[in-house]
Amino acid sequence: MWERKTLLIPDQSGWIVCNYVNSTSQIQVLRIVNIPNWYFERVIFPKQDFRFEAPPDADLEIHTGILASAILSDKIQCDRLRIS
């Protein structure tokens, strides 16, 4: 799956392509909340491969578990998820 957000941030020239794989057996919710005027949230299924574009300084939050009670299980800077 490929995702590109084009809302609210006019200059996306420095954005990077990132890849995240849900290697767990649980549904995960991915969120980026540290970029002003921009909010990113996606549900990722077990073993799903997910590509997206984001600013290099964005932090990807990974929430794992049942959606109503998911806990923050990890936070990864998007620059570490960059693909060539």
Automatic annotation (TrEMBL):
Q: What single Pfam family name could you report for this chain, choosing any that match?
A: DUF1830
How is this protein named in the record?
A: DUF1830 domain-containing protein
The organism named in the record is: Amazonocrinis nigriterrae CENA67
